[in-house]
Design brief:
Blueprint: E1 13-17, E2 21-26, E3 33-38, E4 42-48, E5 54-57, E6 65-67, E7 74-77, E8 126-128, E9 135-137, E10 141-144, E11 150-159, E12 164-171, E13 178-183, E14 192-196, E15 201-203, E16 214-221, E17 226-233, E18 238-244, E19 273-276, E20 281-284, E21 288-294, E22 304-313, E23 320-332, E24 340-345, E25 352-369, E26 374-391, E27 398-406, E28 409-417
Antiparallel strand pairs: 1-23, 2-23, 3-4, 3-16, 5-6, 5-14, 7-10, 8-9, 9-11, 10-11, 11-12, 12-13, 14-15, 16-17, 18-21, 19-20, 21-22, 22-23, 24-25, 25-26, 25-27, 27-28
Amino acid sequence: MKKTLLFASTLLISLSLLAQEQKEVVTGAGYADDVYYSLENGTVTTVARNNWDIAFVAQVMSVSILANNGSGVELYTYPDGTIDDWASVDTAGMAWTPMYNSIETWDMGAFNANTIPGDDFDYGWGRYNMITHQITGDSILLIKTLSDSIMKVAITQKDPMTNTWEFKYAYLDGSNEQTVPLSAGAYVDKYFVHYSLDSTKFVDREPAMEDWDLLFTKYYDYTIPYIVTGVLSNDGHILAQEVRESGMDQSTHNSYVDTAFADTISIIGSDWKTFDMGSFTYILNDTVVYYLKTDDGDSTTNSAYYKIYFTGFTGSSEGKYTFMQERLTFVSVGKNKVMNLLQVYPNPAADHINVVFDLVGRSEIDIIDMTGRLVRTTRYDASGFTNLSLDVSSLNPGVFFVRVSAEGKSNVLRFIKQ
Protein backbone atom coordinates (compact mmCIF):
# COMPACT_ATOMS: atom_id res chain seq x y z
CA MET A 1 0.00 0.00 0.00
CA LYS A 2 1.33 3.44 -0.88
CA LYS A 3 2.39 5.64 2.02
CA THR A 4 3.15 8.74 -0.05
CA LEU A 5 0.21 10.78 1.17
CA LEU A 6 0.51 9.63 4.75
CA PHE A 7 4.02 10.96 5.19
CA ALA A 8 3.96 13.84 2.70
CA SER A 9 3.53 16.56 5.32
CA THR A 10 3.93 17.27 8.98
CA LEU A 11 0.36 18.58 8.94
CA LEU A 12 -1.18 15.14 9.44
CA ILE A 13 -4.65 14.60 10.76
CA SER A 14 -5.66 11.95 13.26
CA LEU A 15 -9.24 11.06 12.48
CA SER A 16 -12.09 9.75 14.55
CA LEU A 17 -14.90 8.60 12.30
CA LEU A 18 -18.49 9.36 13.02
CA ALA A 19 -21.24 7.10 11.73
CA GLN A 20 -21.21 6.55 7.99
CA GLU A 21 -24.44 7.36 6.20
CA GLN A 22 -25.60 6.10 2.84
CA LYS A 23 -26.74 8.94 0.59
CA GLU A 24 -28.57 8.99 -2.72
CA VAL A 25 -28.76 11.66 -5.39
CA VAL A 26 -31.09 11.11 -8.34
CA THR A 27 -30.60 13.03 -11.59
CA GLY A 28 -33.41 11.24 -13.46
CA ALA A 29 -33.70 9.06 -16.53
CA GLY A 30 -31.17 10.13 -19.14
CA TYR A 31 -29.53 12.34 -16.48
CA ALA A 32 -32.19 14.94 -17.22
CA ASP A 33 -31.62 16.96 -14.04
CA ASP A 34 -28.86 18.78 -12.22
CA VAL A 35 -28.78 18.29 -8.46
CA TYR A 36 -27.24 20.87 -6.15
CA TYR A 37 -26.19 19.09 -2.96
CA SER A 38 -25.19 20.20 0.53
CA LEU A 39 -22.94 17.96 2.61
CA GLU A 40 -24.82 19.08 5.70
CA ASN A 41 -28.38 19.16 4.40
CA GLY A 42 -28.52 16.78 1.42
CA THR A 43 -30.23 17.69 -1.86
CA VAL A 44 -30.90 21.43 -2.04
CA THR A 45 -32.37 21.80 -5.54
CA THR A 46 -33.18 19.46 -8.43
CA VAL A 47 -33.60 21.34 -11.70
CA ALA A 48 -33.82 20.45 -15.40
CA ARG A 49 -30.38 20.59 -16.94
CA ASN A 50 -31.53 21.63 -20.43
CA ASN A 51 -33.39 24.87 -19.65
CA TRP A 52 -30.46 27.24 -20.32
CA ASP A 53 -27.85 27.95 -22.99
CA ILE A 54 -25.45 30.45 -21.40
CA ALA A 55 -24.77 31.69 -17.87
CA PHE A 56 -23.19 34.93 -16.62
CA VAL A 57 -21.19 35.07 -13.40
CA ALA A 58 -22.98 37.18 -10.81
CA GLN A 59 -19.88 38.16 -8.85
CA VAL A 60 -18.30 41.53 -9.61
CA MET A 61 -14.75 40.14 -9.47
CA SER A 62 -15.18 37.77 -12.43
CA VAL A 63 -16.01 37.91 -16.14
CA SER A 64 -16.82 34.21 -16.63
CA ILE A 65 -19.58 33.11 -19.02
CA LEU A 66 -20.54 29.45 -19.30
CA ALA A 67 -22.06 27.47 -22.16
CA ASN A 68 -24.29 24.48 -21.36
CA ASN A 69 -21.80 21.97 -22.79
CA GLY A 70 -23.27 19.06 -20.81
CA SER A 71 -26.53 19.40 -22.73
CA GLY A 72 -24.86 19.72 -26.13
CA VAL A 73 -24.53 23.49 -26.47
CA GLU A 74 -21.47 24.28 -28.60
CA LEU A 75 -19.62 27.60 -28.80
CA TYR A 76 -17.21 28.85 -31.47
CA THR A 77 -15.22 32.02 -32.03
CA TYR A 78 -16.00 33.62 -35.38
CA PRO A 79 -12.56 33.75 -37.05
CA ASP A 80 -13.37 36.06 -39.96
CA GLY A 81 -14.05 39.33 -38.20
CA THR A 82 -14.57 41.32 -35.02
CA ILE A 83 -17.69 42.67 -33.36
CA ASP A 84 -17.69 45.45 -35.98
CA ASP A 85 -18.51 42.79 -38.58
CA TRP A 86 -21.73 41.77 -36.81
CA ALA A 87 -23.94 42.43 -39.84
CA SER A 88 -21.84 40.38 -42.28
CA VAL A 89 -21.20 37.09 -40.48
CA ASP A 90 -20.63 34.29 -43.00
CA THR A 91 -20.34 30.66 -41.86
CA ALA A 92 -19.66 29.15 -45.27
CA GLY A 93 -17.18 26.30 -44.89
CA MET A 94 -17.49 26.42 -41.10
CA ALA A 95 -15.15 23.80 -39.63
CA TRP A 96 -14.03 25.38 -36.39
CA THR A 97 -13.01 23.97 -33.02
CA PRO A 98 -15.62 24.37 -30.27
CA MET A 99 -14.73 25.96 -26.93
CA TYR A 100 -15.63 24.49 -23.55
CA ASN A 101 -15.98 25.50 -19.94
CA SER A 102 -12.95 24.94 -17.75
CA ILE A 103 -13.06 21.88 -15.48
CA GLU A 104 -10.56 23.58 -13.16
CA THR A 105 -12.51 26.65 -12.09
CA TRP A 106 -15.91 28.28 -12.55
CA ASP A 107 -14.09 31.54 -13.34
CA MET A 108 -13.18 30.40 -16.87
CA GLY A 109 -16.24 29.65 -18.98
CA ALA A 110 -16.36 28.66 -22.64
CA PHE A 111 -16.75 32.32 -23.63
CA ASN A 112 -13.35 33.01 -22.04
CA ALA A 113 -11.57 30.08 -23.72
CA ASN A 114 -10.09 32.13 -26.58
CA THR A 115 -8.27 34.52 -24.24
CA ILE A 116 -4.97 35.60 -25.78
CA PRO A 117 -2.13 34.03 -23.74
CA GLY A 118 -0.01 36.65 -22.00
CA ASP A 119 -2.46 39.48 -22.68
CA ASP A 120 -3.63 40.60 -19.24
CA PHE A 121 -6.37 42.79 -20.70
CA ASP A 122 -8.02 40.18 -22.92
CA TYR A 123 -10.90 38.10 -21.50
CA GLY A 124 -11.85 36.11 -24.58
CA TRP A 125 -15.08 37.88 -25.46
CA GLY A 126 -13.83 41.41 -24.70
CA ARG A 127 -11.03 43.66 -23.48
CA TYR A 128 -10.49 45.58 -20.27
CA ASN A 129 -10.16 49.37 -20.55
CA MET A 130 -7.79 50.79 -17.92
CA ILE A 131 -9.38 54.23 -18.15
CA THR A 132 -13.07 53.34 -17.89
CA HIS A 133 -12.51 50.04 -15.96
CA GLN A 134 -15.08 48.42 -18.23
CA ILE A 135 -14.77 45.32 -20.38
CA THR A 136 -15.94 46.06 -23.91
CA GLY A 137 -16.86 43.28 -26.31
CA ASP A 138 -14.58 42.76 -29.32
CA SER A 139 -15.57 39.29 -30.55
CA ILE A 140 -18.39 37.53 -32.36
CA LEU A 141 -19.21 34.02 -31.23
CA LEU A 142 -21.35 31.37 -32.89
CA ILE A 143 -23.45 29.11 -30.72
CA LYS A 144 -25.45 25.97 -31.33
CA THR A 145 -28.33 26.18 -28.87
CA LEU A 146 -30.31 23.46 -27.15
CA SER A 147 -32.76 23.47 -30.07
CA ASP A 148 -29.84 23.04 -32.54
CA SER A 149 -30.34 26.57 -33.83
CA ILE A 150 -27.15 28.37 -34.89
CA MET A 151 -26.97 31.94 -33.62
CA LYS A 152 -24.40 34.70 -33.46
CA VAL A 153 -23.68 36.20 -30.03
CA ALA A 154 -21.69 39.19 -28.81
CA ILE A 155 -21.11 40.24 -25.22
CA THR A 156 -21.08 43.99 -25.70
CA GLN A 157 -20.06 45.09 -22.20
CA LYS A 158 -19.57 44.35 -18.54
CA ASP A 159 -19.40 47.30 -16.15
CA PRO A 160 -17.71 46.11 -12.94
CA MET A 161 -18.54 49.34 -11.15
CA THR A 162 -22.27 48.58 -11.38
CA ASN A 163 -22.01 44.80 -11.92
CA THR A 164 -24.08 45.02 -15.10
CA TRP A 165 -23.82 43.22 -18.44
CA GLU A 166 -25.18 43.74 -21.92
CA PHE A 167 -25.22 41.15 -24.70
CA LYS A 168 -26.90 40.67 -28.06
CA TYR A 169 -27.72 37.72 -30.29
CA ALA A 170 -29.56 36.92 -33.50
CA TYR A 171 -29.97 34.25 -36.13
CA LEU A 172 -27.25 34.23 -38.78
CA ASP A 173 -29.44 36.16 -41.23
CA GLY A 174 -29.84 38.91 -38.63
CA SER A 175 -33.44 38.10 -37.81
CA ASN A 176 -34.88 38.08 -34.29
CA GLU A 177 -32.03 40.18 -32.91
CA GLN A 178 -32.18 40.68 -29.15
CA THR A 179 -30.21 43.15 -27.03
CA VAL A 180 -30.38 42.10 -23.39
CA PRO A 181 -29.28 44.00 -20.27
CA LEU A 182 -28.46 42.12 -17.08
CA SER A 183 -28.13 43.65 -13.63
CA ALA A 184 -26.08 40.92 -11.96
CA GLY A 185 -26.07 42.79 -8.67
CA ALA A 186 -29.58 41.44 -8.07
CA TYR A 187 -28.15 37.90 -8.08
CA VAL A 188 -24.96 38.27 -6.02
CA ASP A 189 -26.05 35.48 -3.66
CA LYS A 190 -25.80 33.08 -6.62
CA TYR A 191 -22.79 31.97 -8.66
CA PHE A 192 -24.36 32.38 -12.11
CA VAL A 193 -27.38 33.90 -13.82
CA HIS A 194 -28.67 31.53 -16.53
CA TYR A 195 -30.28 32.49 -19.82
CA SER A 196 -32.16 30.62 -22.55
CA LEU A 197 -31.46 31.99 -26.03
CA ASP A 198 -34.36 30.07 -27.57
CA SER A 199 -36.97 31.31 -25.09
CA THR A 200 -35.34 34.76 -24.71
CA LYS A 201 -35.56 34.76 -20.91
CA PHE A 202 -33.50 34.38 -17.77
CA VAL A 203 -33.91 31.14 -15.84
CA ASP A 204 -33.82 31.14 -12.03
CA ARG A 205 -32.41 27.66 -11.46
CA GLU A 206 -29.50 27.93 -9.04
CA PRO A 207 -29.67 28.01 -5.23
CA ALA A 208 -27.71 30.54 -3.21
CA MET A 209 -23.97 29.98 -3.56
CA GLU A 210 -23.54 29.37 0.18
CA ASP A 211 -26.26 26.70 0.24
CA TRP A 212 -24.62 24.04 -1.96
CA ASP A 213 -21.32 22.19 -1.99
CA LEU A 214 -21.53 19.71 -4.88
CA LEU A 215 -23.22 19.70 -8.29
CA PHE A 216 -24.25 16.33 -9.78
CA THR A 217 -24.39 17.00 -13.51
CA LYS A 218 -23.16 16.30 -17.03
CA TYR A 219 -20.23 18.28 -18.39
CA TYR A 220 -17.67 18.15 -21.18
CA ASP A 221 -14.31 16.77 -20.04
CA TYR A 222 -11.83 17.94 -22.67
CA THR A 223 -9.06 15.77 -21.20
CA ILE A 224 -10.80 12.59 -22.45
CA PRO A 225 -12.55 14.14 -24.52
CA TYR A 226 -16.33 13.66 -24.26
CA ILE A 227 -19.38 14.51 -22.16
CA VAL A 228 -19.38 12.72 -18.80
CA THR A 229 -21.67 12.33 -15.81
CA GLY A 230 -20.04 13.31 -12.58
CA VAL A 231 -19.65 15.70 -9.68
CA LEU A 232 -18.29 19.25 -9.67
CA SER A 233 -17.63 21.23 -6.50
CA ASN A 234 -18.38 24.76 -5.35
CA ASP A 235 -14.91 26.31 -5.33
CA GLY A 236 -16.27 29.27 -3.40
CA HIS A 237 -16.15 27.31 -0.17
CA ILE A 238 -15.20 23.68 -0.88
CA LEU A 239 -11.72 22.17 -1.10
CA ALA A 240 -11.27 18.55 -2.14
CA GLN A 241 -8.64 15.85 -2.06
CA GLU A 242 -8.60 12.49 -3.84
CA VAL A 243 -6.79 9.53 -2.27
CA ARG A 244 -6.19 6.39 -4.37
CA GLU A 245 -4.42 3.42 -2.80
CA SER A 246 -4.27 -0.13 -4.10
CA GLY A 247 -6.01 -2.51 -1.72
CA MET A 248 -7.55 0.18 0.44
CA ASP A 249 -10.65 -0.43 2.54
CA GLN A 250 -12.82 2.56 1.70
CA SER A 251 -14.92 2.22 4.84
CA THR A 252 -11.96 2.46 7.23
CA HIS A 253 -9.50 4.61 5.28
CA ASN A 254 -8.73 7.67 7.40
CA SER A 255 -5.62 9.42 6.10
CA TYR A 256 -5.45 12.73 4.30
CA VAL A 257 -3.04 15.67 4.28
CA ASP A 258 -4.40 19.06 5.24
CA THR A 259 -2.05 20.90 2.86
CA ALA A 260 -3.10 18.78 -0.14
CA PHE A 261 -6.65 20.12 -0.48
CA ALA A 262 -7.34 22.06 -3.67
CA ASP A 263 -10.22 24.09 -5.10
CA THR A 264 -10.18 22.41 -8.55
CA ILE A 265 -13.88 21.85 -9.27
CA SER A 266 -13.49 18.42 -10.95
CA ILE A 267 -11.42 16.60 -8.32
CA ILE A 268 -14.35 14.24 -7.67
CA GLY A 269 -15.30 14.36 -11.33
CA SER A 270 -16.29 11.18 -13.14
CA ASP A 271 -13.40 8.70 -13.02
CA TRP A 272 -14.55 6.89 -9.86
CA LYS A 273 -16.46 4.71 -12.32
CA THR A 274 -15.85 3.05 -15.69
CA PHE A 275 -18.29 1.59 -18.20
CA ASP A 276 -17.94 -2.13 -18.94
CA MET A 277 -19.04 -2.85 -22.51
CA GLY A 278 -19.26 -6.59 -21.76
CA SER A 279 -21.84 -6.34 -18.99
CA PHE A 280 -23.16 -2.96 -20.15
CA THR A 281 -22.94 -1.68 -16.57
CA TYR A 282 -20.84 0.79 -14.65
CA ILE A 283 -18.01 -0.59 -12.52
CA LEU A 284 -17.07 1.45 -9.46
CA ASN A 285 -13.48 2.00 -8.39
CA ASP A 286 -13.17 0.65 -4.84
CA THR A 287 -9.67 2.06 -4.26
CA VAL A 288 -10.52 5.75 -4.16
CA VAL A 289 -12.03 8.03 -1.51
CA TYR A 290 -12.59 11.79 -1.50
CA TYR A 291 -12.00 14.09 1.44
CA LEU A 292 -13.78 17.45 1.45
CA LYS A 293 -13.06 20.51 3.54
CA THR A 294 -15.69 23.20 3.88
CA ASP A 295 -15.77 26.54 5.66
CA ASP A 296 -18.60 26.46 8.18
CA GLY A 297 -19.10 30.21 7.88
CA ASP A 298 -17.70 31.05 11.31
CA SER A 299 -14.13 32.33 11.17
CA THR A 300 -13.62 31.55 14.86
CA THR A 301 -14.02 27.79 14.42
CA ASN A 302 -12.44 25.08 12.31
CA SER A 303 -13.66 23.96 8.91
CA ALA A 304 -15.81 20.86 8.61
CA TYR A 305 -14.24 17.74 7.07
CA TYR A 306 -16.08 14.98 5.21
CA LYS A 307 -15.22 11.72 3.48
CA ILE A 308 -17.26 10.25 0.64
CA TYR A 309 -16.90 7.22 -1.61
CA PHE A 310 -19.30 5.84 -4.20
CA THR A 311 -21.08 2.52 -3.83
CA GLY A 312 -23.57 2.58 -6.69
CA PHE A 313 -24.41 4.24 -10.01
CA THR A 314 -27.40 3.16 -12.07
CA GLY A 315 -26.47 4.89 -15.30
CA SER A 316 -29.03 6.50 -17.58
CA SER A 317 -31.97 4.35 -16.44
CA GLU A 318 -32.58 6.61 -13.45
CA GLY A 319 -29.35 8.57 -12.98
CA LYS A 320 -28.95 7.56 -9.34
CA TYR A 321 -25.70 8.06 -7.44
CA THR A 322 -25.26 6.11 -4.19
CA PHE A 323 -22.40 6.98 -1.88
CA MET A 324 -21.26 6.75 1.72
CA GLN A 325 -20.71 10.02 3.54
CA GLU A 326 -19.27 10.71 6.95
CA ARG A 327 -18.39 13.83 8.82
CA LEU A 328 -14.97 13.59 10.45
CA THR A 329 -13.69 14.81 13.78
CA PHE A 330 -9.99 15.37 14.10
CA VAL A 331 -7.04 16.53 16.09
CA SER A 332 -4.63 18.56 13.96
CA VAL A 333 -0.90 18.93 14.43
CA GLY A 334 0.70 22.30 13.69
CA LYS A 335 -2.44 23.72 12.12
CA ASN A 336 -2.28 27.44 11.37
CA LYS A 337 -4.39 29.88 13.30
CA VAL A 338 -7.49 31.07 11.50
CA MET A 339 -6.61 34.17 9.52
CA ASN A 340 -8.17 37.45 10.53
CA LEU A 341 -7.82 40.39 8.11
CA LEU A 342 -8.26 43.52 10.15
CA GLN A 343 -7.57 46.60 8.07
CA VAL A 344 -6.20 48.11 4.87
CA TYR A 345 -4.97 51.71 5.13
CA PRO A 346 -4.59 54.44 4.03
CA ASN A 347 -7.75 54.32 1.97
CA PRO A 348 -7.72 56.01 -0.52
CA ALA A 349 -4.01 55.31 -1.13
CA ALA A 350 -1.47 57.11 -3.28
CA ASP A 351 1.72 55.03 -3.31
CA HIS A 352 1.45 52.36 -0.62
CA ILE A 353 -1.04 50.47 1.55
CA ASN A 354 -0.64 48.76 4.90
CA VAL A 355 -2.33 45.37 5.26
CA VAL A 356 -2.98 44.41 8.87
CA PHE A 357 -3.76 40.77 9.73
CA ASP A 358 -3.24 38.18 12.45
CA LEU A 359 -1.82 34.89 11.15
CA VAL A 360 0.87 32.33 11.87
CA GLY A 361 2.26 30.58 8.79
CA ARG A 362 2.53 30.88 5.01
CA SER A 363 0.10 33.34 3.46
CA GLU A 364 -0.63 34.98 0.11
CA ILE A 365 -1.61 38.62 -0.26
CA ASP A 366 -3.26 39.28 -3.64
CA ILE A 367 -4.22 42.59 -5.21
CA ILE A 368 -7.15 42.19 -7.62
CA ASP A 369 -8.74 44.77 -9.90
CA MET A 370 -12.47 45.33 -10.39
CA THR A 371 -12.65 42.81 -13.22
CA GLY A 372 -11.25 40.01 -11.09
CA ARG A 373 -7.80 40.15 -12.75
CA LEU A 374 -4.95 39.27 -10.39
CA VAL A 375 -2.59 42.25 -10.43
CA ARG A 376 0.03 41.17 -7.89
CA THR A 377 0.75 38.39 -5.41
CA THR A 378 3.00 38.64 -2.35
CA ARG A 379 3.92 35.54 -0.35
CA TYR A 380 4.70 36.09 3.31
CA ASP A 381 5.63 33.91 6.31
CA ALA A 382 3.69 35.52 9.14
CA SER A 383 4.43 34.98 12.81
CA GLY A 384 1.40 36.63 14.38
CA PHE A 385 0.08 40.17 14.27
CA THR A 386 1.42 41.71 11.04
CA ASN A 387 1.42 45.16 9.47
CA LEU A 388 2.67 44.60 5.91
CA SER A 389 3.41 47.57 3.64
CA LEU A 390 2.82 47.09 -0.10
CA ASP A 391 3.89 49.44 -2.91
CA VAL A 392 0.88 50.34 -5.11
CA SER A 393 2.40 53.35 -6.87
CA SER A 394 2.39 51.60 -10.26
CA LEU A 395 -1.34 50.81 -10.16
CA ASN A 396 -3.73 52.86 -12.26
CA PRO A 397 -6.31 54.91 -10.35
CA GLY A 398 -9.40 52.91 -9.50
CA VAL A 399 -10.96 50.40 -7.12
CA PHE A 400 -8.98 47.33 -6.06
CA PHE A 401 -9.32 44.45 -3.61
CA VAL A 402 -6.79 42.99 -1.18
CA ARG A 403 -7.24 39.27 -0.52
CA VAL A 404 -5.26 37.54 2.24
CA SER A 405 -5.34 33.72 1.99
CA ALA A 406 -3.96 30.89 4.11
CA GLU A 407 -4.94 27.28 4.85
CA GLY A 408 -7.90 27.40 2.47
CA LYS A 409 -9.35 30.49 4.15
CA SER A 410 -9.36 34.04 2.83
CA ASN A 411 -10.67 37.48 3.58
CA VAL A 412 -11.10 40.48 1.29
CA LEU A 413 -11.16 44.23 1.79
CA ARG A 414 -11.50 46.98 -0.81
CA PHE A 415 -9.30 50.03 -1.31
CA ILE A 416 -9.14 52.93 -3.76
CA LYS A 417 -5.93 53.85 -5.60
CA GLN A 418 -5.78 57.59 -6.23
